[in-house]
């Protein structure tokens, strides 16, 4: 019997990254649910790392995500803040380290220049259209953001609108947002 067979799973995250007009915006909702019950409505799943030069958001198990945040920060320090290299090294460790392989989370990370999605399968993906999302409501937010890309010029406004749409559709997403914005000149 697996852990998810024993008890209803912890669910409820929508993380959306939007890069447009010289800005990178990372937005995360605040809902954490266990089965049909909302356990918390104002969780903070988006934060700054590396002295504020990188923003990261997670979907998945909170303790696992914090372990990955710590690993990413150490990789950033080791590789002089070079985000691409740090992400690749984290993904390699995540895939090969027996302890890390058990971690259940996905990360969206970005700096003033680039955005990456890091998965436990060892993938480091750069979105081709400037939009990426993960979590229970990720596909709703992703679809809304892509639809709004040609109509909304401001990345933060676009992210807020897309997250509002996701919150109205996905029962595991709410409208209590944490938003971090990086400008190209940060």
Molecular structure report:
The protein has 186 residues and is of the alpha+beta class. The radius of gyration is 16 Å and the shape is globular. 35% of the residues lie in helices and 30% in strands. Helix 2 (62-78) crosses helix 3 and helix 5 crosses helix 6 (155-169). The chain has helices at 3-6, 62-78, 83-96, 98-101, 138-148, 155-169, and strands at residues 10-11, 14-20, 23-28, 32-34, 37-40, 46-49, 54-60, 105-110, 115-118, 124-125, 131-135, 178-183. The N and C termini lie far apart (49 Å). The chain has a five-stranded antiparallel β-sheet. Strands 11-2-3-12 form a four-stranded antiparallel β-sheet, covered by helices on one side. The chain has a three-stranded antiparallel β-sheet with strand order 1-4-5, with no helix packed on it.
């Amino acid at each position: 019997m697996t852990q998810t067979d024993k008890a209803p799973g912890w669910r409820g995250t929508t993380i959306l990254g939007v890069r447009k007009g010289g800005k990178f915006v990372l937005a995360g909702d605040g809902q954490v649910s266990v089965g049909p019950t909302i356990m918390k409505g104002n969780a903070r799943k988006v934060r700054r790392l590396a002295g504020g030069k990188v923003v990261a958001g997670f979907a998945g198990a909170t303790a696992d995500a914090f372990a990955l945040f710590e690993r990413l920060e150490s990789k950033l320090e080791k590789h002089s803040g070079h985000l691409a290299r740090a992400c690749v090294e984290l993904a390699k460790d995540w895939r090969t380290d027996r302890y890390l392989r058990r971690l259940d989370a996905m990360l969206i990370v970005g700096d003033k220049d680039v955005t990456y999605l890091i998965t436990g399968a060892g993938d480091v993906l750069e979105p081709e259209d400037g939009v990426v999302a993960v979590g229970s409501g990720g596909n709703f937010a992703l679809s809304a953001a892509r639809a709004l890309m040609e109509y909304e010029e401001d990345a933060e406004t676009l992210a807020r609108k897309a997250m509002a749409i996701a919150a109205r559709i996905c029962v595991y997403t709410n409208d209590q947002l944490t938003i971090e914005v990086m400008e190209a000149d940060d």
